[in-house]
């Protein structure tokens, strides 16, 4: 660390010292149009604003907020995919009626059935509980950073326990 | 970290000196950006390319305020919450009652389709801003409308010719 610090400091001195011969700061007269054109060109090089890498992973949005969207989109994908496939099934010759689904699912090994049930049950329970929390946020309840973090942990715990319970139904 | 950072800094410094050594200074901007680059502690990482953008108006223009429209604003927002909140009892009912009658099943699925449609609209609005990608935004919104209409038709078929969604899930669950 110290070696790096020294290197950085030295480089800063070299690159930034005002008496450095490499860089002489010069001003130049620009017309208003030229200045505007330079500024426009610079503004177009702005970085992407919602940049994934700049988010601090310890912040509250990874606890529940973004998972609400992930779980919701998982179910939406399932619903849209199944409904469209069901609509197309007679044309393509697929069998997606409930009776064939029951037969196909029943033929799977128990471990795979349990895993598949958990994969469906957890997002449902999580989305439901966390959705209630979001409605509470909208009414300005529990909208305090410490409370958000704590309730986020409760929701993760409760959703895992409840979805394991759903497997026993 | 140090071994990664140092060559990078050195490279930047070398690039900077090469730039400044060029006899006819090409542009002040380039020279200064090389100087500034040496100060940046984090590297630039572009995961997604920036969306197309154009500069409109001056630097000091205020942000345009859209005309107020409750049906796109507060009414829409409240409607979205009401749909979401009403799904809570409707989702709990089949667990308590064992199943839902066909009418309630249709109500539940109708609300879920609306809820999904609004959620997908929110995602499109977030990731395809109208200002930057007006055409993709319009295409995505209309594509979603078509998809939702077809999904509703498919669900209508399922509800009327099959056993209903809650009953089907129950049968698969106990299979």
From TrEMBL, chain A:
Topology versus the membrane: Multi-pass membrane protein
Domain of life assignment: Eukaryota
GO-annotated molecular function: electron transfer activity; metal ion binding
BP GO terms, sorted: mitochondrial electron transport, succinate to ubiquinone; tricarboxylic acid cycle
Keywords assigned by UniProt, alphabetized: Heme, Iron, Membrane, Metal-binding, Transmembrane, Transmembrane helix
UniProt-annotated location(s): Membrane
One cellular-component annotation, GO: mitochondrion
InterPro entries listed in its UniProt record: SQR/QFR_C/D, Succ_DH_cyt_bsu_CS, Succ_DH_cytb556, SuccDH_FuR_B_TM-su
Database matches in PANTHER family: SUCCINATE DEHYDROGENASE CYTOCHROME B560 SUBUNIT (PTHR10978), SUCCINATE DEHYDROGENASE CYTOCHROME B560 SUBUNIT, MITOCHONDRIAL (PTHR10978:SF5)
Name by which UniProt lists this protein: Cytochrome b560 subunit of succinate dehydrogenase
TrEMBL record, chain B:
Matches recorded under InterPro entries: CybS, SQR/QFR_C/D
Major subcellular location class: mitochondrion
Binding-site residues, a ubiquinone: 127
One GO cellular component, as annotated: mitochondrial inner membrane
Record's bilayer topology term: Multi-pass membrane protein
Annotated GO MF terms: heme binding; metal ion binding; ubiquinone binding
Tagged with keyword Secreted: no
Keywords associated with the record: Iron, Membrane, Metal-binding, Mitochondrion, Mitochondrion inner membrane, Transit peptide, Transmembrane, Transmembrane helix, Transport
Compartments it resides in: Mitochondrion inner membrane
GO terms under biological process: mitochondrial electron transport, succinate to ubiquinone; tricarboxylic acid cycle
Residues at which heme b binds: 115
Domain of life the protein comes from: Eukaryota
Family, per entry: Belongs to the CybS family.
Name of this protein: Succinate dehydrogenase [ubiquinone] cytochrome b small subunit
Organism: Coniochaeta ligniaria NRRL 30616
UniProt lineage: Eukaryota, Fungi, Dikarya, Ascomycota, Pezizomycotina
